[in-house]
Amino acid sequence: QQGRRISLLTSIVDNRDKEQVCKNLLLTTGTKNKFVRIYC
């Protein structure tokens, strides 16, 4: 479920905002999250 939320989130946000969103995801989920690495 968490993976679907992130993929949906990244598909909605603009490319400019995507970088900031990735930073927020890294802060909340941690750099060890493989799913975040794929999208960032």
How would you concisely characterize the structure shown here?
The chain has 40 residues and is mainly alpha-helical.
Question: How would you explain this protein's 3D organization?
Answer:
The structure is a single chain. The protein has 40 residues and is mainly α. The chain has one domain. It contains 3 helices and no strands. It starts with a helix and ends with a helix. The mean pLDDT is 67.
Offer a few descriptive terms.
40 residues, mainly alpha, single chain
Secondary structure topology:
Elements: H1 2-12, H2 15-29, H3 34-39
Largest sheet properties? none
Q: Helical stretch count?
A: 3
Assembly type: single chain
The overall pLDDT average reads 67
Radius of gyration: 9 Å
DSSP strand content: under 5%
Number of strands: 0
Structural class: mainly alpha
Distance from first to last alpha carbon: 19 Å
- The string of secondary-structure elements, in order, is HHH
Sum up the overall morphology in one term.
flat
- What fraction, in percent, of the residue positions are helical? over 70%
Q: How many structural domains can be distinguished in the coordinates?
A: 1
> Which stretches of 5+ consecutive residues score pLDDT under 50?
none
